[in-house]
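Why should sequence recovery work at all? Because a backbone constrains its sequence more than one might expect. Tight turns favour small or flexible residues, buried strands favour hydrophobic ones, and helices have their own preferences. The token representation captures these environments compactly. In the example below, the structure is given first.
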């Protein structure tokens, strides 16, 4: 795509920013409950040659999060080539700024040759003051941890500077992404900017020792990203540590005086909690082994009952469940109204997302991106237009217009009503298990003991750090 056409041709500019505004609305307001951009002051000004380097955990959701973190800036983003080969959707994603990157593991060695002209074009955009984004891990991770970095992103930047005679200072902007839920809509995402690294400081070294210059910059960039994100390095105990983070982590955040739902601060407390658990695993492996085993057993018994850990911290009574169900019954008519056309919008991605889910591994990380793309590009425009035309045929234009304007609110209501129903079932199952399941009842006490033990471990870790 000719990037300059977005700025030189008024019609192209208007069409692009209008369409981008719609996609951002779907991304920030419908798909996610909250999107946070942290350290905005660290972002380079528009027009400064910038290469955004980010961790990669959630497939297509990552480039979208980076793109929309810049309100009024066109960002060219490298993405897997096969994603951009999808009919129709691929062309639209390219128009949004995604650039195909051919990778050895996915397209084979022969396809790598196609990267040369693409990288050269990206370098040219950099020199002319554009912003490029890339994911140095070269593949998305399926956990909260940071993989190895390929130096390709720095070769791109240094070679662009070299072709320009080292006259232009290219900035590398380390960026970290964090999600509270990889797969569910109406969750939250954090985009966190680090401190930009000036490549001009390394031009002299690059001219004599290019690999050394690349490694030095990469070390700085990778450390910044690692420090900003949730990076759980204990992969052997990852499941247990992550489960403790999502369960006890709520209580720990509250004890630190923050709202657990405010993801940027929750990220900080989660990092400290996980660091304490990883330290325990390294210094007291037997103690850690028992704690991790207990955590996984708690997870198992909770899933067997058909509820989730959060229900333990609620003062669940039959009276409270009754009033909760009463509230659902009262608002049921509004839910039924909101199902048209929200039900069809939400269900339309399922045939594809179920395939990704069945494959497991890294393939499941495409679930969120597939859901967003299908909803934003197909089902929302299609069913909302149908809803408007149907209203127009049955009523008058202003009723149709009001209903159309309310569709985003009704869609969010429908989704949250569904979640509320699921949680209500969890409450009912909790009461039933508490009264009839002796094993589950014993875990109510054991869970409290486990969490108290973890609390002491984290506080000890904090004290040791201060010494």
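From this structural description, the recovered sequence reads:
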């Amino acid at each position: 795509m000719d990037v300059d056409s977005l700025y030189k041709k008024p019609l192209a500019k208007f069409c692009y920013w209008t369409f981008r505004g719609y996609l951002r609305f779907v991304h920030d307001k419908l798909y996610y409950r909250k999107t946070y951009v942290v350290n905005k002051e660290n972002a380079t000004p528009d027009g400064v040659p910038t290469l955004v380097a980010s961790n990669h955990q959630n497939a297509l959701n990552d480039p979208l999060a980076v793109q929309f973190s810049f309100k009024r800036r066109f960002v060219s983003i490298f993405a897997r080539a096969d994603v951009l080969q999808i009919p129709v959707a691929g062309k639209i994603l390219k128009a949004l700024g995604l650039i195909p990157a051919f990778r050895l593991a996915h397209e084979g060695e022969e396809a790598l040759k196609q990267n040369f002209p693409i990288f050269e074009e990206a370098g040219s955009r950099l020199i002319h003051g554009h912003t490029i984004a890339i994911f140095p891990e070269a593949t998305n991770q399926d956990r909260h941890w940071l993989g190895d970095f390929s130096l390709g992103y720095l070769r791109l930047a240094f070679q662009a500077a070299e072709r320009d005679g080292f006259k232009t200072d290219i900035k590398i902007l380390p960026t970290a992404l964090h999600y509270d839920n990889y797969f569910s809509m109406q969750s939250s995402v954090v985009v966190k900017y680090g401190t930009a690294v000036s490549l001009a400081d390394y031009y002299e070294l690059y001219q004599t020792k290019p690999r050394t210059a690349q490694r030095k910059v990469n070390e700085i960039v990778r450390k910044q990203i690692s420090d900003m994100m949730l990076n759980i390095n204990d992969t052997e105990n990852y499941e247990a540590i992550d489960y403790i983070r999502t369960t006890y982590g709520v209580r720990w955040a509250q004890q630190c005086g923050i709202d657990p739902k405010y993801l940027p601060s929750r990220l900080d407390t989660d990092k400290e909690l996980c660091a304490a658990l990883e330290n325990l695993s390294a210094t007291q492996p037997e103690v850690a082994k028992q704690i991790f085993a207990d955590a996984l057993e708690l997870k198992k018994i909770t899933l067997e009952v058909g509820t989730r850990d959060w229900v333990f911290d609620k003062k669940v009574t039959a009276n409270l469940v009754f009033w909760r169900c009463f509230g659902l019954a009262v608002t049921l008519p509004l839910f039924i109204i909101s199902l048209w056309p929200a039900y069809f919008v939400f269900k339309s991605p399922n045939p594809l997302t179920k395939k990704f889910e069945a494959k497991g591994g890294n393939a499941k990380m495409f679930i969120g991106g597939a859901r967003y793309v299908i909803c934003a590009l197909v089902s929302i425009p299609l069913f909302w237009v149908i809803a408007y035309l149907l209203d127009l045929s049955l009523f008058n234009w202003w009723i149709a217009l009001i209903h159309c304007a309310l569709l985003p609110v009704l869609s969010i209501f429908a989704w949250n009503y569904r979640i509320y129903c699921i949680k209500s079932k969890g409450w009912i199952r909790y009461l039933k298990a508490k009264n009839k399941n002796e094993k589950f009842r014993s875990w109510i006490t054991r869970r409290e003991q486990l969490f108290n033990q973890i609390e002491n471990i984290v506080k000890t870790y904090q004290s040791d750090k201060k010494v």
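A few observations help interpret the result. The two ends are 56 Å apart (CA to CA).
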